[in-house]
Model the fold of this input.
Amino acid sequence: MKAAIVGIAEHGLEGAGTRSELQLQAEAGAIALEDAGLVAADVDAIFTASNDMSWIPSVLVAEYLGIAAKYSDSTNIGGSSFEAHIGHATAAIAAGLCEIALITYGSNQRSRRSRALGASGPVRLTQQFEAPYGLPLPIGAYALAARRHMHLYGTTQEQLAQVAVSTREWAALNPSAKMQDPLSIEDVLASPMIVDPLHLLDCCLVTDGAGAVVVTKEGVARNLRREPVWVLGHGTAHTHATISNMTHLTQPSARDSGARAFGMAGLRPDEMDVVELYDSFTITPILTLEMLGFCLPGEGGPFIVDRGTGPTGTFPMNTNGGGLSFGHPGMFGIFLLIEAVRQLRGDAGRRQVTGARHAVAHGVGGALSSSATVILGRG
Done:
């Protein structure tokens, strides 16, 4: 049974103010349902992930919205959770376990002056074997991967910086993006070094924000307000929790999740018109491009420069401005899906990729720990 995304919403990126994480999610969910032409009473499945909102977040969101869910999923594998939720929702719909699924996420981390992610707080379990060495997380893990990639393949800091510059060019076309001022490679390299080799402008933003996505079966999707965006393939993989247990620092599990997603969709990487990749740090999309098969291992840096991933290039990537310039409310994966849907609908305004028919959204979680890939199409 086919499944499609029929409603989307991004919300609260201007700042949460006094609104709670739960309120942001509920508001985003209501907007996404309105976008689809549905109401909360139509929803029979709820999916969400949170680092600190509740130990039963999907139950809490359902209660707040008045949803009587017969299918519930609070899977949390970090920033890739929402791509994984798409796969779970699609499978549940195919199995007849639900018909209309609402996926939500929200964070007020900036307004409450917090960066309360999984690596913060008391050191527990396997983290105890890394903490004594003073590795700052999550950035330290990504810095290790970046330095290893530079050592193995000659990747340069200028190539890393180009990722940030290109996403800023997209952000300049997006009125919702937090950072829109022009950015140069020199600006990135002149920004403070946070963890060698990653500078301040190699790092994602810390913002508030919420997002929501509505997924339903084909029979419902074809009779709603918006043109359906079809879920063609999905895949999830994870290889480790702590970076010291990552076998190859330059080879995250995107290779496995991507192979499953592209295989299910019956499409190749070079058939994607729009590419939305998690960019927690500038090294992250470089590694992902290689593992998804857009280029060979070690070629990610030159690929970014030669193909051009900004608005004037030949490889449209992170077209809303990404976590580096659009916004990053702690877990960014849901915003990759929202932007991919917007591009396939033709609703992206000045940043619209002409004739986009296929898109990939790929989330990354933890210390390069988890990967989830979704292939979407229209028509």
User: Anything to note?
Assistant: The chain has a mean pLDDT of 95.
